[in-house]
Design a protein that fits this description.
CATH class of the largest domain: Mainly Beta
CATH topology of the largest domain: Chondroitinase Ac, Chain A, domain 3
Number of strands: 35
Low-confidence stretches: 12-27, 277-327, 385-393, 441-446
Radius of gyration: 33 Å
Helix content: 10-25%
Oligomer: single chain
Strand content: 25-35%
Number of helices: 6
CATH architecture of the largest domain: Sandwich
Structural class: mainly beta
Amino acid sequence: MNRAFIKTACAIAVAGVLTPVLVFAQSLSLPHQFFGSVDFTNGAAVDGLTVEAKINGSVVGSSVTAGGNYGYNPSLLFALDNDGVHAGKTVEFYVGGIKANETGIFANGNSTNLNLIVPGSVGVIEETDEDSVIEDQTAVITPSQISTVKLGSDLNIAITSEENTTARIREVKKLTSSFFTGATAVISGNNLLNAYEIDITGDDISISVTVSYDDSGIDEDTVKPYKFNETAWIELSYTINKTANTITFIVSSAETPYSVFGSSAPAPTPPPSPPTGSSGGSAPLPPPSQPEPEVQPAEEEDEPAADEEAAPPEPSVSPEDGQVLGERIYADGTLIRANNKRIYVIINQQRRHVASLEELRRLYAGKPIIDVADSAAAAYPVEGATTAPSALNAQGYANGTLIRAKDKKIYVVENRALRHIASLGELRAFYAGRPIIDISGAVAGARSYGAGELIRGSDKKIYVVTPEGGKRRILSLAELARDHFRKPIHNVADSVLAQY
C-alpha cells in the first residue's frame, strides 16, 4: 500500500470524527443570565415570589426571590435560547404575576445585573385619614405574607391566600349618611354604626374585614354586618368582640357596599320608690335627667363581707368636663408610657399593652409616645383582660405568647393576663407565624368579663369587675346610678362570680 493512499485515508477518518463536533458547536445557543434586587412601591420583595423572564409573552427563564433579590444561587435565572432566535429581543420581567418596570435586551452568553421595580404593594397599605380613598392598587400575597389594608382607625382588611397571588384593590372608602337613601336606606328599626365601599378582587384569596363601631346607646346583641346585593341589605356571618367593639366577617371577594347596623338599647326602667319615712314625707326622687339604671327591686342592704373590697375614694372631678383634676384625658389611639416603661395604646378609653417592638413598628410607626404618671395610666382599665388565676394559668409566659385551652379558644398573654383572639382575621393580621401553645388549663365555656363590667350572681348583689381582675360590690343604688349609669348588668352563675 503506498504512502499517499494511507495519508488520504487518515485525513478522511479525522474529518469524519471532527465534523459532528463542529456542527454541534455552531448550533449551540448560550443563555443570558439576569440577577439583581426586587422592590415594590412600599418596600423590598418578600421571600418566595416567582420571577419570570418572558420574550413575546413566552417564559424563557425563572427564579424565586430571597432576601429581596432574584437570580442568585441557588435560584439562578437563565433566559434560554434553544433555537438561537432571541438575540436582540426585549426581555420582560414579572414578579408574582405583576410586570416590572424594567426590561432587558437578550444577548447570548451575557450576564446582566438588572434591579427590578414592581408597581405593587407588599405588607400594609394604609390611609390614616378615614375620609381618604384607597384605590387602584395591587397587593402581593403569599402563604407566608398577608396584605393588610387600613383606612382610618375603624377599618382593617386582611387579605390571605394559600398560593402566591395578587389582589386588585379597586376602591376602599367610607360611606356617609347621604348614601343611605331609597333602596340602600338603613334597615327599619336600626341605626347606622359604620359603612364602607370595599371593592377587592383576586384569585384564591380570602378577605377578612374587621370594622369598629360605637356602642353608645346600642343593644350590642343586635349589632350585625350587612352587604347590599343591588336590591336589599343581606346579613353576613360574623364574629363580634363586644369588649373591643369590633365585628369581623370573611368573604372571598368584596364587590359591594358593606354596613354595620344595630338597634337602640331599651330605655332603663326607674327603680321602685323608696319607703315613706315616719314623718309621712318621702325621700326625694333622682332628677329626670339622671334616671336610675334597671336593677332588681331594692332589698335591705347587708354589711360588706369580710373578704370584699372597700369602695375606693372618689377622685376629684372637674364639673365642666368630667376630667380627673390634674390628669389629662387621652384620645383613643394615643400611645402612653408609665414609670414601668411599658407602652400602652388607648382603645375605647381602655389601655392595651403593646407587647413587642415589632408590634410597635408595624402598627404605630411615627406616633409619639407620651410619658405619664402611674396614676394616669391606672385611670385606663386593661382592655378586656381576664387575670390568669381566674381562667388559664398565664404565669411564666412572656407577653405576646399565644396559648390555647381545652375549649379550643386562643388567647394572647398581655401583662400576665389573657385576652381572647376574637377572629381568624385578627390572628392572621397580628400574630401570623407565632406558635400556639396548648395548655391544660380550662375555660369553662363562660364569658370573661373585663374591667368596669357589672355582674350579678344568685344572691342578687351587683359587683363591678376591677382592673386587677377581681370584683368590688356596688354598695348602693346611688353609687350604681352615679358611676355606672346605663351599663348593662350581666347575670352570671355563682361559679363564674367566684372566679373574680
